[in-house]
Each structure stands twice: as C-alpha cells, then as structure tokens.
From TrEMBL:
InterPro entries named in the record: UPF0114, UPF0114_bac
Membrane topology value: Multi-pass membrane protein
GO cellular component: plasma membrane
Tagged with keyword Transmembrane: yes
Organism: Pantoea alhagi
Stated name of the protein: UPF0114 protein B1H58_06545
Length: 167
C-alpha cells in the first residue's frame, strides 16, 4: 500500500504538465498582443508624440519581460517538478536549462517581478501629472515592497547555501 501511494504521488507530478502548456498559450497570447501594439503604432509613427512613443515602447519592454518570465517559469518548472527536458544534441539549448533549481527559479522570478514593476513605475512617473499624489505614493510603496521581498529572498537563499557549504 505504501509503495502504491508513493508511486501515485510521484506520478501525480504529471498533472503540472498541462499547466506549463497553458503558460505557453499565455505566451502566445502575449506575443499576439505585442504585435497588435506594433501594428497600431506603425501607421501613426510620424504623428505620435515622443512621450507617447516612449510609453508605448516601455509597454513593449514590459510585455517582453513578462514573456521571458513565462519561458523561465515554464521550462524550469517543468524540469524541476515534472521531467527533464530531452533536447536533441543538434538543437540549440538554453544555457540555464538544467542548472536552475527551485530556489534560484524563485529568485529569478522575484528579480523579474522587480524589473516589471520598475518599468510600470517608470510609465506611471512619465504620466505623473495625470496621477494623484496618493496613488503615486502607493505605486512607490508597492514597488519598494517587491524590491525588499526580492532582496530578502536572495539574502535568505545566500544564507541557506552558505550553511550547506559549511556543513
């Protein structure tokens, strides 16, 4: 009975595979939205104000960072929790595949969230004249919370790795 339960629990990790496939569909949706924004920009490129162009470009950078985050979570999560990716020798392989454990993945996700939040905050600051001061304050507080959380997670990961080296 114990062996059956353990095998069943271990096999249940495959329930995550459709979730990671779902993330790839999210990446497809993000790609479509990215190019939709570019298609909307091109006919108006000569008429668009510089500030509006910068805001749009920041939005595209934001989408790109989210896309990279999706790829990182999708591939590393699959490798860490479901199965090792079996990529042919002759195919291009991302340098970080197989090297990112769940702890480093968590830190990379936190760093990506901080980068995305930074881009969002920059967009808000560029339109600060249209945003109430109390909202600006909350955007900064939320961003600093992300920064502090990412720093704290990285520091705790560093301490944990140092403890493992010492023992």
């Amino acid at each position: 009975m114990e062996r059956f339960t353990e095998n069943l629990m271990y096999a249940s990790r495959w329930l995550l595979a459709p979730v990671y496939i779902g993330l790839s569909l999210g990446l497809l949706a993000l790609t479509i939205k990215f190019f939709q924004e570019i298609i909307h920009l091109l006919p108006n490129i000569l008429d668009i104000a510089e500030n509006d162009l910068v805001l749009l470009l920041l939005s595209l950078v934001d989408m790109t960072l989210v896309g990279g985050l999706l790829v990182m979570v999708m591939l590393s999560g699959y490798e860490n929790f479901v199965s090792k990716l079996d990529i042919d020798e002759h195919k291009e392989k991302l340098s970080w595949l197989g090297k990112m454990d769940s702890g480093s993945l968590k830190n990379k996700v936190a760093a990506s969230i901080v980068a995305i939040s930074s881009i969002h905050l920059l967009r808000v600051f560029m339109e600060a004249r249209h945003v109430a001061n109390d909202k600006l304050m909350w955007y900064v507080i939320i961003h600093l919370t992300f920064v502090f959380s990412a720093f704290l997670m990285g520091w705790l990961d560093y301490i944990t790795r140092q403890d493992k080296k010492d023992h």
